[in-house]
Amino acid sequence: MNIEQYIEKIPFSTGCSVVKFDACGLVAINKKAGRATHPNPGGHTGSKPPMVRADYNFKGEYYYWRDENGQVMSLYLVNRLDSPTSGIVIASAVKEVAEAAKKAFKEKSVIKTYISVLIGRIKSGKGTWMDYLKETSQNGFVRSAPSKHGGGMKALTSFRALAAGKGYPELTLAELTPQTGLTHQLRVQAAKHAVPILGDATYGNFKINKLVRARTKINRLFLHCAKTELKINIADKQICFCAEVPPPESFKNILELNDNPRFK
């Protein structure tokens, strides 16, 4: 079975699909906001099913199912996105390829570019955030917070403003490129630097989230993984893989709707 035939047999949930693949087995999936990358260990997945409608092996980090002929098939996850974040998730049809790609993520050689809508203005236009974050556990969920008394893990994120709305509240379309990969890094750093991501129900500005949601009728976290680039070595051959998917139209629409004169 070739990779194209394999892709056709993946039981994706609505709104999730493959945007790029390689003959080696690498697959880039566009995950819809609100879909979990994989089920929760406790079996609870929220109001929506996860990205793939199949059983999941937590130890091996792969989905598995039977096709129409009864053949067992597997999809090995390489990385994940938070449920409210949309965009590119990397996976593989081949276990060895998935392990090579995971190694690239662990070595921090993968470049991921996110598009976000921030509440407020980035005064410098572009630059790098450098903070120290600590992970905590709250009611069974992992959270991150800026380290107030030293210690913690270094978090680095490059940022660049792309466009700005003219209404109130001030909204900025921005590009965020994490250089480290800590839990909820982009969301925590944006909030710390007084430009929280619009729609963030954990670290954001809840009052403005509610205001913009009521005005525009758009309810989501405005964070989207738009591009992922990685290089892996398989059988002494280097494979360069780059997948891109633009953010949903809601990212553009939210600025236009918020700029409506009747809201000023």
What tags apply to this protein structure?
2 domains; Pseudouridine synthase; alpha+beta; 5 helices; single chain; globular; 13 strands; 264 residues
How is this fold's topology laid out?
Layout (H helix, E strand, L loop, with lengths): L2 H6 L8 E5 L4 E6 L23 E3 L4 E5 L5 E6 L8 E7 L2 H12 L4 E9 L6 E13 L2 E6 L6 E12 L6 E8 L6 H8 L13 H11 L6 E12 L2 E8 L4 H10 L6
Parallel strand pairs: 6-12
Antiparallel strand pairs: 1-2, 2-6, 3-4, 4-5, 5-6, 7-11, 7-12, 8-9, 8-10, 10-11, 12-13
Share of helix, binned: 10-25%
Q: Kindly state the number of beta strands.
A: 13
- What is the H/E string? HEEEEEEHEEEEEHHEEH
Uncertain regions spanning at least 5 consecutive residues? none
Strand content: 35-45%
Tally of separate domains: 2
What's the CATH topology name of the largest domain?
A: Pseudouridine synthase
Number of helices: 5
Helix/strand class = alpha+beta
Radius of gyration: 19 Å
Query: What general form does the structure show?
Result: globular
CATH architecture of the largest domain: 2-Layer Sandwich
CATH class of the largest domain: Alpha Beta
Q: Mean pLDDT, rounded to whole units?
A: 91
